[in-house]
Design goal:
alpha+beta; Cytidine Deaminase, domain 2; five-stranded mixed beta sheet; 4 helices; 5 strands; about 25% strand
Length: about 150
Amino acid sequence: MVIDVVSLEMIKVGTITLECDARKIYGPEISSDIFISQIGRKNVEYLGLLCLDNTDRIINYSTIAIGKINEITIDIAQIFKVVLLTNASKFIIAHNHPSGVVTPTEQDIKLTKKIGQVAQLLGVELVDSLIVSESDAFSIRSHVRKGRYDG
């Protein structure tokens, strides 16, 4: 009998140059700038991911999914593949609204809560879930925590 031997690895496919020196994320301000620069101007929906270590240092950025003009299908497993393979202890996700309106939909809120629940089970932290446009960002997690959305 012959059994294949396999391994998983992350491959660096590029770099992002930022106009700030911050290597650590303390809130949505810095992360929103990163996501706006990467997916804010796209004309279809994108889901991006920032992986962080336990000191809030940025490990990497990844585009997880590309959708249509007004929707995106997100396979939650793809988020966690990257998070776990990079040994991240925390992560931030964001998707864009090509319309420019960063108000979350009910689906956006439900999905954020579901991703947060899976993260807890896996022992990693979903720091935030953002919606971005070309020039604006909205933090779903901070508004859900304040009781503004029921989802």
